[in-house]
Amino acid sequence: MFLAIDTSAGTSVAVADGEMVLAERSTEDTMRHAEVIGEMIAGVLDDAGVPASRIRTVVAGMGPGPFTGLRVGIAAARAFAFGIDRPVVSVVSHDAVALEEWSAGARGPLLVVTDARRREVYWSSYDLDDDAPVRSDGPALCKPDEVPYAEFDRIDATQVSAGALARVALLHRERGMSEEYSEPLYLRSPDVTMPGPRKRVTP
């Protein structure tokens, strides 16, 4: 049983049992992650009729995503997992978008693009073969007019499904794949940084 959380583009929380998504709540609002995340977690557990004690794995979407929103979801996933003494599995958020497209029947090369703000975008490229989607490049950050792979089918995602994120985690487990990233994929430095040492003033 999985609890999956993604805040890389909006906020999405889901409970899944294997391939079956039992409950999912999502919003495309990119400004209120912290305000809605707790209510969403409680809500999907209630919708699914699943107590927290039945969750065996917590899945965290690692982005790419803007710093403030992304860290809310990852912190919530880690805190929830700590509270119930369960492991956290990290998944690239774009992989969930690619899996949804593959599940809907798409095949061939695919480019997943999400908003990075500051007039930039995040992108990842995939090969959707008959077996599963395979990421071939990215995640990366660039200006909108610098996005590569113009010949690929492209999807500009405004939401990452936590249910699909859980299915990616299951697919990785079944294939014995290890985590690629254990740290958030901000792909740029945060706005707030620690100040450097004071400059010496020459008298």
TrEMBL record:
PANTHER family found in the cross-reference section: TRNA N6-ADENOSINE THREONYLCARBAMOYLTRANSFERASE, TRNA THREONYLCARBAMOYLADENOSINE BIOSYNTHESIS PROTEIN TSAB
Name of the protein described by the UniProt record: tRNA (Adenosine(37)-N6)-threonylcarbamoyltransferase complex dimerization subunit type 1 TsaB
Record-linked InterPro entries: ATPase_NBD, Gcp-like_dom, T6A_TsaB
Cited Gene3D superfamilies: 3.30.420.40
Coiled coil: none
Class of enzymatic activity (EC top level): transferase
Record's keyword annotation contains ATP-binding: no
Domain named Gcp-like: residues: 31-147
SUPFAM superfamilies membership: Actin-like ATPase domain
Highest taxon of source: Bacteria
Sorted UniProt keywords: Acyltransferase, Transferase
EC number, as in UniProt: 2.3.1.234
Alphabetized GO MF terms: tRNA N(6)-L-threonylcarbamoyladenine synthase activity
